[in-house]
Amino acid sequence: MQNSSEGRVDITYLEKMQKAGERGAQLTRQLLAFSRRQFIAPEVLKINDLVVKLDKMLRRLIGEHVGLVLETSPDAGSVKVDPGQMEQVLINLAVNARDAMRDGGKLTVQTMDVIMGEKGVGLGSTLGSGEAVAIKVTDTSIGMIQEVASRAFDPFFTPK
Prior knowledge:
Mean pLDDT: 81
Largest sheet: 3 strands, mixed
Oligomer: single chain
Radius of gyration: 19 Å
Helix content: 25-40%
Structural class: alpha+beta
């Protein structure tokens, strides 16, 4: 830990330590939820805030050979979601995209408001109709074969 010239602890190091502790606690909650020993804790939050908060972490995870583009719609609304679980979904998508683009590429994360039931939204009829908030994650890899794509949301499945 660095000290200032007056013998006080540099506040930036304390802030970093606090953030690391909070991330550790959040990771523990995620692991407990994953093992079904804890209920999720949904909160109402602005989707753009969640995406922007992950910017630095995603950039470190995907490396310099993959460009990251965040396209947050100023009109994107709020969602009721467990922030830790939503972050984990975005992190997993980013890591899978990085692995699929070994020679480099671009990962784009977009936020937007959508009207369910509108032609072209493609989110399925089981979600109903009405206003919703969406996150669209795309990359410049060659994509998944049909067999992998059909299992993409199976628990414990990995395309690796």
